[in-house]
Amino acid sequence: MPASSARRLTVVLCAAEVLTMLGFSTFAVLLAPLRDLWGLSNAQAGLIGGAFFAGYTIAVPVLVSLTDRVDPRRVWIVGALLAAAGNAGFAALADGLATALLFHALAGAGLAGTYMPGLRLLADRLEGRAQSRAVALYTASFGVGTASSYLLADWILRAATWRLAFGVPAIATLLATALVLLWVRPEPPRIRPPTRLLDFRPVLRNRHSVTWSLAYFAHSWELYAVRSWLIAFLAFAAAGQVPGSGWPAPAQVAFGASVLGIFSIVLGGECSIQLGRKRTVLVLMSLSAATGAALGILGGSSYALAVTLALLHGPLMTSESASVTAGALGNADPAYRGATMALHSMLGFAGGVFGPVAFGAVLDAAGGSGVPGAWSWAFAVLAAVTLAGPLALLVIRPADLPGDGRDRAGRGPGTTSGCGTSPSGRRGAG
Length: 430
Hints:
Blueprint: H1 3-20, H2 26-38, H3 42-66, H4 72-93, H5 97-125, H6 128-159, H7 162-183, H8 201-204, H9 207-238, H10 250-275, H11 277-298, H12 303-318, H13 321-330, H14 337-365, H15 372-386, H16 388-396
């Protein structure tokens, strides 16, 4: 694909990703007002929030695996319409627990049909460094959309009604659908898998791709545990601080760390291209684990130190996200790229589910959130799980991608430049 066409495709899909993500955090912003309006318990309100991810989990293996068999553009459009219907239904019809569960789960299923299928649209049309850079930008767009979702929902809630906070993302998703219909051409898969839908055995036999997905599991475990507990930890560290000391509030620190992480995703992807993917991810994940452990051990004694370490840990924590995703996709057998992405996404979601729970369990076992040592233990265990990602790369040694580190690392002279080719020159070799 010509460079100009590659850039246009990347811009269109990144813009569409941001637009479809504008409803991602809407319920999180509106949780307390809707809980009180509908007379829900905290558990019921949390159940509505979880319904989004339940819808995603149920839909992602089917919708993403389908991209091996039908045009990914068609799957993306179906996903976008599901997301628009979920948000629009919430805006117009939600009036309590049952309807909110239904429409929020539908919106989550829509994300399953847009996020990874959109990544597939890039991966199928680009190769080498252009593919790696596009994946980094697309992954960063997820963060842009998430942060924008918080701000948009909060602004609309202050200026208008909560129903409009769901209605605007529905309209934005329809706009994204128009962009994809106009600027992304249809392109059915060139190779169709001989196996049945949801048969992941060929994917599991590809150690080069699966290892990157295991690193993604460790990355997601750390990322979602910290996003769930960081504000609570910073509030603990701030207890007893003199008001007006000039340091930002915990929620502002968390937002700042998330914004910095958007830029680090792109920078980490570029480092993988220039220096080698394994080398970059090994260094970044190890630094993230070390900084996270330091945050738990040292941050409880000083709010200023906690803020500083949190703002350093945030971008380190996200910096390898695009690199491990591109590693999994680039080493996938082209016939099973959709199934590979489905497995990759499910492993990432599993890390996101279990990470926050495990963090809280360690916190409770070590004495509770009021004990400084308990936070130290929780962050130390989290760092140990994070290091499982670099350990998997060291032990299994998956391949880098063509063009990474000027082809120095992980590829022999017989390797071609096609995506999904293993170091031995065989597609999807195990």
